[in-house]
Amino acid sequence: MSTLSALVLAGGYSRRMGIDKALLPLPNRQPLLLNTVQIAQQVATEVAVVTPWPSRYRTLLAPTNALLIQEPSLPHPPNNVLDTAYSDTAHRDKPSAGPLSGFAYGWQHISTEWCLLLACDLPYLDADALAQWWNWIELLPELDSPMASLVARRRGWQPLCGFYHRRCLPSLNRYLATAQRGFQPWLQQVSVARYDNISTQMFFNCNTPVEWSAVIGE
Questions:
Q1: Class assignment of domain 4-216?
Q2: What are the domain boundaries of the chain?
Q3: What is the mean pLDDT of each run of 10 residues along the chain (218 residues)?
Q4: Which residues fall within 8 angstroms of residue 10, CB to CB, at 6 or more apart?
């Protein structure tokens, strides 16, 4: 049986939300990032959070024993980062280099062959659904083992809630060396096992206050 780690990405700017999405409280008052980490821990043997701002989440995640990984940052934030949550000097000097870079960097800190990659802002994430998906991957014939297993969407794959094998790393590093940062072009170079037995609601991520109000029932 293969072992599994999880990497949770928490480096987004939350521009449209206006505040840090990772800290938004669910109806049970649990912050979204903490909920994501605890669900990942039900499936994976180790969980790490990749972020440019580990100090922001250290106290929140202390009870989970999740590893906090400070990803390398860009020297300056993008010009369109306008929300006040990132206006102070500490955050302005440590902008994220993007989810694909954070994913690649996180691999250096885990030892397993498989990795569950999750965005931090998935309010409908479900541990049982992830466990069933992982069991399905483990039953795939070894000779046909893919580099990833993802859910298809209208414009490509859903990359920020899926499983990746360590064999994808050489391709990923070559792609990043070309200064490209988009998931979809890279995934065209990777063998992916499509998974369909899952509700698409689980992949919904909140980007605006209106969307968040719908999630919490306001």
A1: alpha beta
A2: 4-216
A3: 89 82 90 96 96 94 96 61 40 67 94 96 95 95 85 92 96 93 93 94 87 80
A4: 22, 33, 49, 50, 51, 53, 57, 120
